[in-house]
Amino acid sequence: MDPAPRRTQSRTVLVTGAGTGTGALSSVSLAQAGHRVFASMRDPGGRNAEKAQALLRRTEDAPGELSVVELDVLSEESASAAVDEVVRQADGLDVVVHNAAHLLVGVTEAFSPEEVLRAFDVNAVGALRVDRAVLPVLRRQESGLLLWIGSGTTRAVPPFLAPTPLPRQPSTPSPSRPPGTSPPTASRPRS
Ligand SMILES: NC(=O)c1ccc[n+]([C@@H]2O[C@H](COP(=O)([O-])OP(=O)(O)OC[C@H]3O[C@@H](n4cnc5c(N)ncnc54)[C@H](OP(=O)(O)O)[C@@H]3O)[C@@H](O)[C@H]2O)c1
């Protein structure tokens, strides 16, 4: 007899920065896995309209469902309105994927403190704005999951990928290193 097919319980998932890259791919994959996905982005009716339409096209036949909602992680009002809309449409929210972030590429001294602070505002404080809207809902439900997309660049910065203001990843045991070897460090190209 064939083994019973594995079924995934459908969850309601909100993804931030879903117009491109990891956020778009995660949103499509989650809808294809049967989940109810709210792919959020800035300005889906204007600047990002084509990206929003592409996500809808790519999930037309998916077993799950994908909707696009507006969410700018720089605005508490926007985060709050997006979460309200998700809860209104889906009657709850199970998972938030904190994905929106800017990766700064270039030599460290080329970035002004203001530019780095702006990136930190999106990458780190942005997730807090969303959490402040989401956590009361999860507490009421007594369930929920918050996921952060991190980056190895918070631990070791490769040349020309600095500075990268992202929340630190939770410390997990690093793979054991042979005795007498050093951890990887950032290096500067020799002139
Ligand atoms: N790519 C990599 O190699 C890599 C490696 C490790 C980790 N990561 C992590 O993966 C995540 C996504 O990276 P990615 O490479 O997929 O980047 P990406 O394609 O540049 O996507 C970043 C997304 O964030 C959005 N965003 C920026 N500011 C926003 C705001 N204020 N509110 C809402 N959304 C905003 C952007 O939307 P707009 O179009 O509106 O700007 C964009 O869709 C990041 O957390 C990054 O640190 C990436």
List the helices and strands and how they pair.
Layout: E1 12-15, H1 21-32, E2 36-41, H2 49-58, E3 65-70, H3 76-90, E4 95-98, H4 113-141, E5 145-148
Parallel strand pairs: 1-2, 1-4, 2-3, 4-5
Bound molecules: NADP nicotinamide-adenine-dinucleotide phosphate.
Task: Name its key features.
binds NADP nicotinamide-adenine-dinucleotide phosphate; single chain; 191 residues; alpha/beta; Rossmann fold; 5 strands; globular; five-stranded parallel sheet
The CATH class name of the domain at 12-102 and 129-154 reads: Alpha Beta
Ligands, ions, cofactors: NADP nicotinamide-adenine-dinucleotide phosphate
CATH architecture classification of the domain at 12-102 and 129-154 = 3-Layer(aba) Sandwich
Helical proportion? 25-40%
Strand order of the largest sheet: 3-2-1-4-5
Report the end-to-end length measured between terminal Cα atoms. 67 Å
Mean pLDDT: 86
What is the CATH superfamily classification of the domain at 12-102 and 129-154?
A: NAD(P)-binding Rossmann-like Domain
**Total helical elements:** 4
Strand content: 5-15%
Instruction: Give the strand tally.
Output: 5
The CATH topology of the domain at 12-102 and 129-154 is given as Rossmann fold
Low-confidence stretches: 171-179, 183-191
The coarse overall form would be globular
Query: Element order, helices and strands?
Result: EHEHEHEHE
Characterize the largest beta sheet: strand count, sense, and whether it forms a barrel: 5 strands, parallel
